[in-house]
Amino acid sequence: MCPLFIVRTLATLALAWAAAAACVALQTPLPWMIGPLLATSVVSMVGGPTESWGPLRNAGQWTIGAALGLYFTPQVVALIGGLWWAIVLGIVWALFLGWLFGAWLYRVHAPRMHGVPAPMLRATSYFAGAIGAASEMTLLSERENARTDLVAASHSLRLLIVTVTIPFALQFSGLHGLDILPPTLRVVNWPGLALMALLTGAGALLMDRLGRANPWFMGAMLVSMGLTMAGQSLSAVPQGMVNAAQLVIGVSLGVRFRAEFLHTAPRWLASVALGTVVLMGVCALFAGALAWSTGLPWVTLLLGTSPGGITEMAITAKVLQLGVPVVTAFQVCRLIAVLMLVDPLYRRIYPPSAHEGSVG
Fold first, then answer.
1. Could you read off the pLDDT of 166-188 as tens digits, one per residue?
2. What residue ranges do the domains of the chain occupy?
3. Which CATH topology does 3-46+55-355 take?
4. Measured in Å, how far apart are the chain's first and last C-alpha atoms?
């Protein structure tokens, strides 16, 4: 690691901490994530030398995953088990909405992007519209000869909009979910925390070796969930660690927005921004229908079905106490389904012979 990279990383962390402290003083929602996210994204877009170190981001996801797993008590798991049909509906909804968004992007841009062949634009639009698994969708789009820069930019912009908009809206609305963390899991036990770190770290490393999506988050969360469901309450995760984890995750999101981001097909980004706002609106309506059917708080199901990332929506649920287990269950199941089904569905809906010349 070169000295310049270290200096840039430390300077970025200092900027992120200052932004988080300012947001804490201003009492904004998710100050430890939104402050660093906004500060680093703005500085990055104006050409500032921001950097994010991968191991720090991994440690942040590991910490959040371990903390979220503590919510999955046997009683909570029983509640989620009774919602299987709603989770399946959420998956179908996400796949349909992603396809619809992609088809709309294609219809809007096909007449204007004359330098992009129809099959390339079709694949670009489809994978840019898919809900969830941003980095994985970029890799899948590359296999289909899509414009990966547009796919990555679309997911980054949508994640930024959702991550900033929803927490502010929820905090100022005063809505509440159904989170009550058991008292035993509010106490930090240092030997227990060390053992939990060892076990969840092993789970994260295993998921990473297996090449799974979000390995540091998913591996840690699954191990923590297993311990909690088995009645093993080792320790709570200190709030300072959770705050630090949010900070490095916010930085890792913010540094995606380099100066060239603003020059990446402005009309395309504008349509993605507009589409994201519409997606949030229709997801809110869908969450309302699920809330009516299940009797669960609308705000919890809103986070569970929103077009944001699993880590960011789970953090929102945790910090604002809006139903972490339900939100996480919806988001995890959706992530798995998207990873497994999006590419096969693309090949089924748009076989190679159908790519040429069709719009819509």
1. 998 888 777 666 665 555 467 88
2. 3-46+55-355
3. Na+/H+ antiporter like fold (1.20.1530)
4. 48
Alpha carbons 238 and 235: distance in angstroms, whole number: 9
Q: Render pLDDT for 232-246 as a digit per residue (tens, 0 to 9).
A: 888 999 999 999 999
Sorted by sequence, the CB contacts under 8 Å of residue 127 that are 6+ apart come out as 102, 137, 138, 140, 141, 144, 146, 151, 342, 346
pLDDT band of 359, cuts 50, 70, 90: very low
Instruction: Tell me the C-alpha to C-alpha distance, in Å, between residue 338 and each of 93, 97, 98, 177, 290.
Output: 11, 12, 10, 26, 20
Distance of CA 125 to the CA centre of its chain: 20
d(CA 324, CA 328): 6
pTM, to two decimals? 0.86
Polymer length in residues for the chain: 360
How many CB atoms neighbour CB 151 within 10 A? Answer: 26
d(CA 9, CA 246): 16
User: Token pair of 278, please?
Assistant: 């519409």
The answer to whether 24 and 31 are in contact (CB under 8 A) is: yes
Q: Is the pLDDT of residue 358 over 70?
A: no
> By the 8 A CB rule, do 166 and 302 touch?
yes
CA distance 76 to 27: 30
What residue type is 66 in one-letter code? A
Q: How do residues 112-170 score in pLDDT, each as one tens digit?
A: 877 778 889 999 999 999 997 777 888 888 888 888 889 989 999 999 999 999 998 88
292's CB contacts (< 8 A; 6+ apart) are none
The whole-angstrom distance between residue 300's C-alpha and the CA centroid of its chain comes to: 16
* Tokens describing residue 33: 């994530």
Tokens (6 digits) for 181: 């963390």
